[in-house]
Design a protein that fits this description.
By secondary structure, the protein is of the alpha+beta class. The protein is 28% helix and 33% strand. The longest helix has 32 residues.
Length: 180
């Protein structure tokens, strides 16, 4: 008679442990890994990329069934490999070093009051079935010129990112040779 409650409680403890492992611990780890990036999204879900220079739209690129096309300043085909590379690199920009809000000076000190360059990404969030637009602004280079100050629109931190990413955003490398 004493063995039945023990077997039942052991069985319930195993079920509870499996539930906690599969649904609670696993989801926390996924959230933590997803939040270690500045702009977390899936590259395949990117619909458009816009590059701005001090409130002036320099270039607008849209994905038309896996083909990137420049819409502005003039319609033409974009450098496919480069735009795919930008779309793949943006969500992988790590939160390596950030300046918390309480330690920040004015945005002007980092060149982020009127950013020198901004990248606006529109992507489809498959979880909520809605298009989302996020902006990553780039300010001044650091004294060593190896990093650039950056800020995401919905984030209170200012980040130091490798300056080489700005090379990808040069307009001359984005434009393809063929028109439609």
């Amino acid at each position: 008679m004493q063995k039945v409650p023990l077997v039942i409680s052991t069985f319930l403890a195993m079920i509870l442990s499996i539930y906690i492992y599969n649904f609670e611990l696993k989801s926390e780890a996924e959230v933590m890994s997803f939040n270690k990036f500045i702009l977390p999204f899936e590259p395949a879900d990117v619909l458009a990329i816009e590059i701005k220079n001090k409130d002036t739209q320099l270039i607008n690129i849209n994905r038309d069934s896996k083909i990137w096309r420049i819409v502005k300043p003039f319609p033409c085909r974009a450098n496919q490999e480069l735009i795919d590379s930008i779309a793949n690199q943006l969500p992988k920009l790590p939160r390596i070093y950030s300046i918390p809000q309480k330690e920040q000076k004015a945005l002007k000190e980092y060149g982020l009051e009127k950013p020198l360059l901004a990248v606006v990404v529109t992507f489809r969030d498959q979880n909520i079935k809605k298009n989302i637009t996020r902006t990553l602004s780039f300010g001044l280079l650091t004294g060593s010129k190896n990093e650039v100050f950056a800020k995401a629109d919905a984030d209170e931190h200012i980040y130091l990112l490798p300056a080489f990413f700005l090379f990808y955003l040069r307009i001359s490398t984005i434009i393809g040779v063929k028109n439609y």
